[in-house]
Amino acid sequence: MNWSRGKNIIILVLAATNIILLYMCNVVEFKMDDNSKSFNEYLRSQSVYLKADISSQSVPRASLFVSCEYTDEEELKERIKMFDKKNIYNKIKAEKTADELISFLGYKTISCKKDKTVKIDGKGNFNIIYKSVYSGIRLEESYMIVKIRSGTIESVERKWLEPIREGETKIKTISNLTAVVRFIEKQRNNKMEGKLYIDDIKQVYWLNESNRAKSEARFTEDTMVPAWEISYNGGKKEYIEAYVRR
């Protein structure tokens, strides 16, 4: 067999593998036990390196109704002045003070969970970050950051979505393995070339804000859907809606 013919056969085999995988992702769930070899071949063919744990398991989930809370920046500044806590120079005190502040401001709810504390260069500089969480799943793009600078509370940055209730119907969702394949195809369809390093994949509730782009109205309520958040290539993020396509 000459090399040219052999190369064409390899290309046809890889193309056939891609078609089969796409069918499995859009019509039925990808079964890890039966197709792990095909999946690994597919990753290699697409120059994808996967660091995250993947599974073919999925859980039916309902949509989530949320309230969209808006902050009056000037009023918030005045209320922070009233709190008046200083000399905050270590992590433990910074976190304790941040907890006290958000309670004082009336922002402490069941969904409000401390996510992490980031030490900023300089003495007494911290960012204490909170996220909104429902049933163990984070609400993406819902956050609050208490900023402490030089041992004093400087500001609170807040963009908050508060869970109200679940939708009445739980719908089948795709596995994170299936989400990875959809992500790869989306990147390639968008002409993203080169290697993809997938660092992490986790389920979140996602609000597709592009639907609001043509409206200047302030939404008081909205609906979030389950999605897979894929972190790749050193901090980039992509969201793949988790509901199974019919």
Structural features:
246 residues, 9 strands, alpha+beta
Can you lay out the helices and strands and say which pair or pack?
Layout: H1 3-26, H2 32-45, E1 48-50, E2 64-69, H3 73-83, H4 91-104, E3 112-119, E4 126-134, E5 137-149, E6 152-166, H5 176-189, E7 196-206, E8 221-232, E9 236-241
Parallel strand pairs: 1-7, 5-7
Antiparallel strand pairs: 2-6, 2-8, 3-4, 4-5, 5-6, 7-8, 8-9
Structure write-up:
With 246 residues, the chain is α+β, with helices and mostly antiparallel strands. 31% of the residues lie in helices and 34% in strands. It is built from 5 helices and 9 strands, in the order ααββααββββαβββ. The protein is globular. The model is unreliable at 19-34 (pLDDT under 50).
